[in-house]
Amino acid sequence: MEGHRPNRRRTFRPRNPDLRPVMAFPSRFFEKAPLSYPLYLFLVLSVLILIVLVNGYVEIQRTRSQLFRVLETEGRIIIRGIETNSANLISSLEQARSYAPSSGISESTEDSLSIEDLLIERLVSLALRLDQEAAQRSVGKASKAPSETMDLRHIYFLSGGSSDPVRRQLPENLKKEPPFFQEVLIGKTRLAVLRGEGAWRESTPLAVAVARRFGPGIILISVSPDEYSFLTRQIIIQGFLEEFSGKGNIAYITVEGSNGQFIAQTAGQVSFRPGRENFKKEVGSKGQDLYWIGFKDQEVLEILRPFAPAGRSIGRIRLGLSLKEVNPILHQAGRNILLMSLVLIGLGILSLYFIFHLQGRHFRKMKEMEEQIRLKEELSAMGQLAAGVAHEIKNPLNAISLVVQRLQQEFHWPEPEAQQEYERFTRIVRDEISRVNQIIGQFLMVARPLASRLEEQSLTAILDYVLEVLAEELRLKKIRLSKTWSPDLPLIFCDRFQLTQAFLNIFNNALEAVPEGGEISVSVRPKEDNKIELIIRDSGRGIAPDDLKKIFAYYYTTKEKGVGLGLAITRKMIQAHGGDLEVRSVLAQGTTVIVGLPKRPRPGQKA
Prior knowledge:
The protein is an alpha+beta fold. Among the domains are: 106 residues, no CATH class; 147 residues, Histidine kinase-like ATPase, C-terminal domain (Heat Shock Protein 90, 2-Layer Sandwich), CATH 3.30.565. Helices cover 50% and strands 17% of the residues. It has a 6-stranded antiparallel beta sheet. Strands 12-14-15-17-16 form a 5-stranded mixed beta sheet, covered by helices on one side. Strands 1-4-3-2 form a 4-stranded antiparallel beta sheet.
């Protein structure tokens, strides 16, 4: 035909141009979203785990810092106590030495004498060590280094004779005859002590003479005022250090002079001297001199502070506080934080899984909604097109049908075979015209809203009529039909024509699926939710699970000549009556169609 163009698939474009970008974006997004989910999930989980681990690390560091601050406060209090007590005792001793002996013996004087006695003991011990070392050197056995002399400058080895040249080197107050060590020289006693008094005290506040055990003569040690002051301060500080030794978390305390020498230290703590640590890390702010130190057998928090009792700088004090009680707390805190982190990560993984799962469902629903909108737009356009041309198509079809019917009635062929062939062709033409009319009617029914005329009807009467229409086909295929319902079922409000068409569609599908000699059963029963339930079962080939999800989709069909609108129109008719339609099927075992329709409304209710 002139002007005829080949059939092409019609692409629907919505009238509202604003809808196109809205619908186009989700479509592209949904196509890519499933491939992106694993990457998004991995990235989010990685960030979550990183945040939890960083938070755990920061929390452990914060806990350690808090515990270190507590120990630092304890250490400062100890250092302040040692410094204050040392300053008080040093000041009181200096005041006591400035008084004359005639003023009486006070408490400070007694302290001064006791400290001086301790100093004498140290000097005697030093003299005995020097005597032993000198004897070892004389016989060639000086395998050890000489003992420390406490930086004393006046140590003399005197023989018993008066002509000893060493005596000429003695300070003037020690040359006075007879010398205070005379009885030690002649062997009457083994120890002599000179406590300087008055003007002599300003030059020689203390001197000690000890008889030698490993050789002839004596060892004389004279202490200058500066040495006396240094040694007494050392004894005082050492005494306070020993009082604190082993108490609380104290691991060691040392006081160092400005030149780095040890003035005092707690007993047995030489292994804690600087340079013997396994690691050392500054944990305080800049300039605070707070260190975390690890030794071979334990870890300590070391506080380093200037040491200046009574305002006079002696050097610096080094206080080490043991972490043996802090480390278990840190380990427990670390375990708790690790456990909490694992719990948070687990909860985060579950939460993310549910979020992505729900988001996926949301995306799928949005995709379905988009598809429905697109389909409705296409159906609306198709309905408008069908409504516009239906009248023009039906009139020629009706005319053609009448012409074919007249040809069948008025024209006859003399040969029986030609007559049969003629009737077959004309019947085919009429059948195809009828099918075209039916397709046009289905298009109109899908595209346009249903106009229902609700009347009080009997559901079983409609079913009887439908089964009567299909009786001949049931008979030809030898299909067994069983009906189960009560004659006193309540009436329903419905459009008889629409329900008849819907039931015909359902039964036609069953007839096509059931093989010859099969079975179809129909049952009707009232339900408690004010509905009547119609159940149609067949023994046909069934529907595959993948196909079962698509049976209500428009234009979906597995039949060679099907249009794919039968079940879609059927469900639309059932839903227009306030009912519902459900299809259950197992492949090779048959199909069950369940239709629920509302009963007749009670008086006062809306139909």
